[in-house]
């Protein structure tokens, strides 16, 4: 019903009221009763006019209020949508972080297992190495610093020993990359032990010796257990003699 109270309606009503007032004023020429009626109608017109103006003000205020409510509701909805989007993004991010965390936890477990395996293996090799020392009169020891093949050999000789001669599977023990007493320094391709005896049985890594770059004449025990083709009985590699590593001495 409020929709009928437009500006045009007010104007028509006010105009009609004034017209009625004027009409009755004209008729009121000599009659006393008609004058009173005219005055009454005039008052009614004024009251009607005031009522209409007040109604108009009220409706305008309500309309503004409703408009303001609508704006507030729209802003509220936008805020809710924005928060919903943020929540969705955060949940996605949370799931990704959870996945990453799970993946890293799994890798950590694998690495811990690997470290434990390697530690056990190293301990076992150390025990093997120690047990070899206890056997017979042979004594093994490792140089403490990294040296070239010939410096390693000198280190051993300074202590009444020499680089190890590995002529049995038992002596194939190492827990890092170390020089042994074998080389083909004098004649390329002809391996000789430090006691000048020729090599009879070799425990070569797959593809070795390869004399890479024509510059590999000294032999190491390669402890690279991650490499394909490595095994405790297939671990020898020829390597440049100037490279620095520890050596196993045998006394
Ligand atoms: Ca060589
Ligand atoms: Ca090699």
Automatic annotation (TrEMBL):
Sorted alphabetically, the keyword list is:
Coiled coil, Lectin, Membrane, Transmembrane, Transmembrane helix
* PROSITE patterns, A to Z: C_TYPE_LECTIN_2
Recorded GO MF terms? carbohydrate binding
Q: Which residues cross the membrane?
A: 12-30, 36-54
Instruction: Write down the Pfam families for this protein, in alphabetical order.
Output: Lectin_C
- Could you list the residue ranges forming a coiled coil in this record? 66-135
Q: Which SUPFAM superfamilies match?
A: C-type lectin-like, Myosin rod fragments
| InterPro entries the UniProt entry points to | C-type_lectin-like (IPR001304), C-type_lectin-like/link_sf (IPR016186), CD209-like_CTLD (IPR033989), CTDL_fold (IPR016187), DC-SIGN_domain-containing (IPR051004)
Q: Residue limits of the C-type lectin domain?
A: 135-250
- Stored PANTHER family: C-TYPE LECTIN SUPERFAMILY MEMBER (PTHR22802), CD209F ANTIGEN (PTHR22802:SF471)
Protein known as: C-type lectin domain family 4 member M-like
Organism of provenance: Sinocyclocheilus rhinocerous
Encoding gene per record: LOC107749246
């Amino acid at each position: 019903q409020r929709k009928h109270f437009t500006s045009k309606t007010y104007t028509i009503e006010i105009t009609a009221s004034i017209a009625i007032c004027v009409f009755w004023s004209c008729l009121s020429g000599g009659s006393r009763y008609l004058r009173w009626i005219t005055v009454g109608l005039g008052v009614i017109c004024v009251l009607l006019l005031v009522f209409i103006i007040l109604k108009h003000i009220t409706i305008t205020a309500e309309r503004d209020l409703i408009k303001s409510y609508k704006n507030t509701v729209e802003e509220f909805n936008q805020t809710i949508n924005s928060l919903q989007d943020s929540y969705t993004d955060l949940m996605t991010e949370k799931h990704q972080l959870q996945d990453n965390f799970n993946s890293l936890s799994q890798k950590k477990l694998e690495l811990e297992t690997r470290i434990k395996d390697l530690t056990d293996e190293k301990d076992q090799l150390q025990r093997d190495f120690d047990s070899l020392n206890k056997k017979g009169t042979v004594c093994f020891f490792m140089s403490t610093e990294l040296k070239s093949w010939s410096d390693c050999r000198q280190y051993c000789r300074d202590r009444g020993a020499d680089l190890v001669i590995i002529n049995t599977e038992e002596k194939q023990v190492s827990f890092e990359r170390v020089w042994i007493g074998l080389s083909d320094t004098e004649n390329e391709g002809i391996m000789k032990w430090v006691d000048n005896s020729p090599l009879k049985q070799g425990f070569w890594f797959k593809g070795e010796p390869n004399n890479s770059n024509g510059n590999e004449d000294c032999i190491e025990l390669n402890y690279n257990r991650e490499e394909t083709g490595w095994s405790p009985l297939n671990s020898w590699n020829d390597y440049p003699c100037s490279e620095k590593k520890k050596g196993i001495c045998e006394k």
